[in-house]
Design a protein that fits this description.
Layout: E1 2-3, E2 10-18, E3 24-33, H1 39-59
Antiparallel strand pairs: 1-2, 2-3
Length: 71
């Protein structure tokens, strides 16, 4: 989770995506204005984002443990 840590008035939640080798090759992120993506909303979005990233990783052949805390 990032609450205006890198960009003013912008918040983000990001989760890793891995391949069949376990190498993280990217991330799925949700980014928006902090006025709409409050800490509470980011926490709510973390689990669905983690599940989506797990699905993408599984489609790429990843079979290891969850990569994100929300997963």
């Amino acid at each position: 989770l990032s609450l205006e840590e890198r960009v003013r008035d912008t918040s983000t939640v990001a989760v890793p995506i891995a391949t069949h080798t376990g190498q993280v090759i990217g991330a799925l992120s949700i980014t928006g204005p902090s006025s709409r993506l409050t800490r509470k909303r980011l926490v709510e979005l973390a689990e669905p984002a983690a599940h989506a990233a797990e699905k993408i990783s599984a489609d790429l052949g990843y079979i290891g443990p969850p990569l994100a805390a929300g997963g």
